[in-house]
C-alpha cells in the first residue's frame, strides 16, 4: 500500500512564491517518474511538471521559467517551487508517482490535492 501526502498550498499574492511538497510512503521499492498536475475550476486537469528518477525535467509552457520541480529520492519526496505566481495559477495541485512494489510492479499513485490560490 502506498500513499502520497501533499502540503504547502495556500493563499498568496500575485508575484509571490509557494513551495509544494509531496511525500510517498508505504511498501515502496523504487519510484520512477514523479510529477505535478493541476486543475482549475471548469478546466481540464493538466500536467505542470514532471521529473524522472534520474532528474530529467519537463514543464508546461505556462510555467516554464517560473516553477521548478525537484525530488529527494532518499525521502521519496517531490517538490514544486512556484515563483512569480499569477492568478491563472490558481488551481488544485495534485502530485503523482510511478511507484514499484512487489505486489503490483509499477503503478501510478495520486495525492489528495492541495489548493493554491493566487489573489490580491
Helix/strand layout:
Elements: E1 2-7, E2 10-12, E3 18-26, E4 30-39, E5 46-51, E6 57-59, E7 67-72, E8 77-82, E9 91-101, E10 105-110, E11 114-118
Parallel strand pairs: 2-11
Antiparallel strand pairs: 1-3, 3-8, 4-5, 4-9, 5-6, 7-8, 9-10, 9-11
The residue-averaged pLDDT reads: 97
**What percent of residues adopt helix (DSSP H or I)?**
under 10%
Radius of gyration: 14 Å
Q: Give the low-confidence spans.
A: none
Strand content: over 45%
Return the structural class. mainly beta
Largest sheet: 7 strands, mixed
Inertia-based shape:
elongated
Total number of β-strand segments? 11
Order of helices and strands: EEEEEEEEEEE
Molecular structure report:
The protein has 120 residues and is an all-beta fold. The chain contains no helices and eleven strands. The strands form two sheets. Strands 2, 4, 5, 6, 9, 10 and 11 form a seven-stranded mixed beta sheet that branches.
Features:
7-stranded mixed sheet; 11 strands; mainly beta; 4-stranded antiparallel sheet; 120 residues; 0% helix
Summarize the structure.
0% of the residues lie in helices and 59% in strands. The chain is mostly beta strands.
Amino acid at each position: 500500500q502506498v500513499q502520497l501526502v501533499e502540503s504547502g498550498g495556500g493563499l498568496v499574492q500575485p508575484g509571490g512564491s509557494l513551495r509544494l511538497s509531496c511525500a510517498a510512503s508505504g511498501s515502496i521499492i523504487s519510484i520512477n517518474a514523479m510529477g505535478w498536475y493541476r486543475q482549475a475550476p471548469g478546466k481540464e486537469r493538466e500536467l505542470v511538471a514532471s521529473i524522472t528518477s534520474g532528474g530529467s525535467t519537463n514543464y508546461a509552457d505556462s510555467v516554464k521559467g517560473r516553477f521548478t520541480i525537484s525530488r529527494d529520492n532518499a525521502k521519496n519526496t517531490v517538490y514544486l517551487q512556484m515563483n512569480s505566481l499569477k492568478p491563472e495559477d490558481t488551481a488544485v495541485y495534485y502530485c503523482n508517482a510511478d511507484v514499484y512494489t512487489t505486489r503490483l510492479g509499477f503503478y501510478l499513485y495520486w495525492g489528495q490535492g492541495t489548493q493554491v490560490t493566487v489573489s490580491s
